[in-house]
Amino acid sequence: MSQTVFAPWEDPNEKPLIQFKNVTKRFGDFVAIDNLTQDIFAKEFFALLGPSGCGKTTMMRMLAGFEAPTQGQIFIAGQDMAKIPPNKRAVNMMFQSYALFPHLSVWENIAFGLKREGKDKDAITARVEEMLRLTRLSKFAKRKPHQISGGQRQRVALARSLAKAPKLLLLDEPLGALDKKLRQDTQFELMDIQEKTGTTFVIVTHDQEEAMTVASRVAVMDEGQIIQVATPAQIYEAPNSVYVADFIGDVNIISGRAKPNGEKVATQWAEGQPDIIGTTATKFDAGQEIHFAIRPEKVAISTEEPQDAANKVQGKVLDIAYLGNISTYHVELPTGHVIKAQTANTRRLSRRQITWEDPVWISWTDTAGVLLER
Amino acid sequence: MRRFILIAVPYLWLVALFLIPFVIVLKISLSDVALARPPYMPQLDFAAGWEGFKAFFAALDFENFWFLTTDDLYWKAYLSSLQIALTSTVITLLVGYPIAYAMARAAPEWRPTLLMLVILPFWTSFLIRVYAWMGILSNEGLLNQFLLWLGLINEPLTILNTNTAVYIGIVYTYLPFMILPIYSALERMDDSLLEAAEDLGCSRLSAFWLVTIPLSKNGIIAGCFLVFIPVIGEFVIPSLLGGSGTLMIGKVLWEEFFSNRDWPVASAVAVILLLILVIPIILFQRNEQKQREAEG
């Protein structure tokens, strides 16, 4: 039995859980969110990714009810949220600072929201115990927040925000305060918990790796607008703009003029150099300015001239960044462009063929890169 | 050796300015009143040597403390002082908390100014400020004139020389001691805690009760002690603003000392007052210590 791919955004019959409709938010003269329209579906793990000040936190705070849109509407499960205060929303938030109540124990912190619902004692106890087990915190139930580690605090914050079984969980830079190793482990934990509870997660982060790891869809934001929304793979392989290509991972951008030729487009990028041949579904006008974007790992590097490559250029090794598993070569072309090429270090360092100042060939196929208008 | 000197300095300070005066007061409280200069006996006669010492200690007794229990003026004064201190502490808290809260919520660039305004009255002599209150509260004072002008009252209210005036004076004088510790507790509070409380289903009001109040608890306790402890022994405010009906131990003490010139009884009153104050002072210090531990 083949597993169906989770992609409710591609199903026109699916009703979105969250709808932003032409939402604008201004703080004085500053436009934090600029006429934004976006659907988010139930059970999604939706990441808002962007540099600081791009409006991602404002979007999240509007969902939680801490900010009201200046214009436009936000719907959650079909209900207009304009008049609904934060304490009446089936939305919980995990704060960047965790915002654990310092005067309450871990147990009481998790029970806090449940007690406000006026549930009976046994139900609260059962739910808190369940949350403690889910986040592996049972041992620390009696401790105060200042008596546990950062990673444990993060899990308390998660348990507390999940305890009320919200329709929607908002995570504001949830892993920002953790060190790298712990962050990676926690990312997988988060995904596990999201799957187990079936809650819709919206995560705000500026860490593209984190967004790519956890999210079902990533929205790349800039200056109050969503530039692209797609699955992590699409975002990486088929960015819709130089901004997205540059924001996610490493990329080489070569600008030039388009020379369409059937399915293929040649990019004239420098005098005396052969055109770059690429494939694209978009139509380009002849002579239009376009940007050719290619990921370093898709650029091959060799000392011999490759025979059957669609694109090849000769250059000189400027720099080598050795990262253990991979090496990145910065190759300077005669035109002054510097192209990054990445290879996996399958051989031991001592047997590496290419070194500084070596003349080398870099090459790539005609489908390796993408052509972008802007 | 240098370390020893460094440690010794505060101890010498305490011995010279606290312990020695206390021993002197204690000694006087155990003496008998006398028409002499100083007005009590026995005096230690160093010339008589060991015999002088023996005679000196033999003459000391607890007669004055016993006397305090025979006249109900004293325990009534103690009780009345405690009651006035307690009531005015509660009023000061009720007035001070909202002020501290508003200061902590104010825009950061305003906070130093507001803080300055709270501290500013200390730059004027305390006595002058109490006299100013006499001018405000008297029958022909500003307050009565203002109320008459508004037409709210037909004849002047008698406020000066009543307990009401004492409460007004105490609350006014000690308000900064209540505001400052509460403000410092509230100011340190992370705003996202209130958002978290709201997010988890609290109304603004219940978030205040469940988060803000518990987190400012130490500030409240510190403020209450800082008001309560000095108010018990307060003398200037009740004697200037209070009337004949205002009974406070500070006033009794003053009268024993200066009107009756009965230093031994006055000293006994002072020793008892100190013993009464030791309890709240210990509680206060325990609270401070707990707070430090919680932060550490």
CATH architectural grouping of chain B: Orthogonal Bundle
The strand order across the widest sheet of chain A is 6-7-8-3-9-10
CATH top level assignment of the largest domain in chain A = Alpha Beta
End-to-end distance of chain B = 31 Å
**CATH level 4 superfamily of chain B:** MetI-like
Mass-distribution shape of chain B: globular
Main sheet attributes: strand count, strand direction, barrel closure of chain A: 6 strands, mixed
What does this structure look like?
- The complex is a heterodimer of chains A (374) and B (296).
- By secondary structure, chain A is an alpha+beta fold.
- Chain A folds into two domains: 8-245, Rossmann fold (3-Layer(aba) Sandwich), CATH 3.40.50; 250-372, OB fold (Dihydrolipoamide Acetyltransferase, E2P), CATH 2.40.50.
- Chain A has helices at residues 56-64, 106-116, 121-134, 150-163, 180-197, 208-214, 232-237, 242-247, and strands at residues 18-27, 30-40, 45-49, 71-76, 79-80, 91-94, 168-172, 200-205, 217-222, 225-230, 252-261, 264-268, 276-279, 289-294, 300-302, 311-322, 326-332, 338-344, 359-364, 370-372.
- By secondary structure, chain B is mainly alpha-helical.
- Chain B has a single domain (67-295), classed as MetI-like (MetI-like fold, Orthogonal Bundle), CATH 1.10.3720.10.
- Chain B contains 14 helices and two strands, in the order αββααααααααααααα.
- Chain B has helices spanning 2-29, 49-59, 63-70, 72-105, 111-119, 126-137, 142-150, 163-187, 191-199, 204-215, 217-232, 236-241, 249-259, 263-295; strands spanning 32-33, 40-41.
- Chain B has a two-stranded antiparallel sheet.
- In chain B, strand 1 (32-33) and strand 2 form a beta hairpin.
- The mean pLDDT of chain B is 90.
- The chains are: A alpha+beta (374), B mainly alpha (296).
- At the A-B interface, strand 6 and helix 2 of A face helix 9 and helix 10 of B.
- Chain B: Keywords: Cell membrane, Membrane, Transmembrane, Transmembrane helix, Transport.
- Chain B: One of its GO terms (cellular component) is plasma membrane.
- Chain B: Belongs to the binding-protein-dependent transport system permease family. CysTW subfamily.
